[in-house]
Design goal:
With 264 residues, the chain is mainly alpha-helical. The chain has a single domain, classed as Up-down Bundle (Ferritin). It contains ten helices and two strands, in the order ααβααβαααααα. The protein has a two-stranded parallel sheet. The protein is globular, with a radius of gyration of 18 Å. It starts with a helix and ends in a 5-residue tail after the last helix.
Length: 264
């Protein structure tokens, strides 16, 4: 199979570790894969998922203190769930949208590969501490935005990497500060994993920024007004401080965009 067909096949896999490993296999084969940029595929809008974690509404996810072993595991589980969703988000960007340059598909396959690495790092850490992915409930907020933008690649680039994933750049240092206060070996090891994730997520947001502005240029779209329109149309979460300005700058947000952030 060519690249986009394989991405779709992995998108439909239900077992989490198998999916992550299959993404790694595609990445290893990428130099030998052809890319059919014109192909249109039909597939379920919902990706393959394991039976657990059970998905609930965001407000129904219990709040737990990370100062207990179970609470720390629940925190790391929530991040692992984000990374699992991010695998599916990147695969969806590869198979769903036809007519993009070949580099677009390679870029998003790179993102999928790194998200798979992040998921496996967190899942293996959970196993080391006596838990596993699926042991806690989770919510589906990240995938909802992907579903909302499934018919529009410009809206997808605006609202998933540049909004949802960019929020992760802001949140990660806050989580690391919390882990430092916990101070246990497991917490500090988890913080080290988040160092890796933050560094590579900057690159993922940069890829989103690149393709968003490329699409706006191609389609003669005014990028800032379109972004605001899409955020309102699709109910994107309101951005709120604190912001990781250094990471956002590295990820390609302009100084004008940074100044426009809601600072209070």
């Amino acid at each position: 199979m060519e690249l986009r067909q394989r991405a779709l096949a992995v998108f439909e896999l239900t077992e989490a570790v198998q999916k992550a490993q299959a993404v790694h296999a595609i990445w290893q084969d990428l130099p030998r894969l052809e890319t059919d940029t014109a192909a249109a595929f039909v597939a379920p809008d919902v990706p393959g998922r394991p039976a657990k974690p059970v998905l609930v509404e965001p407000q129904d996810v219990p709040r737990r203190s990370p100062f207990t072993p179970a609470g720390l595991a629940a925190l790391l589980h929530s991040i692992a769930h984000i990374e699992f969703n991010a695998i599916n988000l990147a695969l969806d960007a590869v198979w769903r949208f036809a007519g993009m340059p070949a580099q677009y598909y390679r870029d998003w396959m790179q993102v999928a590969n790194e998200e798979a690495k992040h998921f496996l790092l967190l899942r293996n850490h959970l196993v080391h501490t006596g838990y596993d992915y699926g042991d806690f409930v989770a919510h589906d907020g990240l995938w909802t935005m992907c579903e909302n933008t499934r018919h529009d690649v410009v809206a997808r680039m605006a609202l998933v990497p540049r909004t949802m994933e960019a929020r992760g750049l802001d949140a990660t240092p806050i989580i690391q500060q919390k882990l430092a206060r916990v101070g246990t070996p497991n917490a500090l090891a988890a913080s080290g994993i988040l160092d890796i994730i933050l560094r590579e997520e900057v690159g993922h947001v940069a890829i989103g920024n690149h393709w968003y502005h490329w699409l706006c240029s191609r389609d003669n779209i005014e990028s800032e007004s379109f972004y605001a329109q899409m955020a309102q149309t699709h109910g994107a979460p309101r951005l709120k401080p604190p912001f990781n300005i250094e990471a956002r700058r590295l990820a390609g947000f302009t100084e004008q965009e940074l100044r426009a952030l809601p600072w209070n």
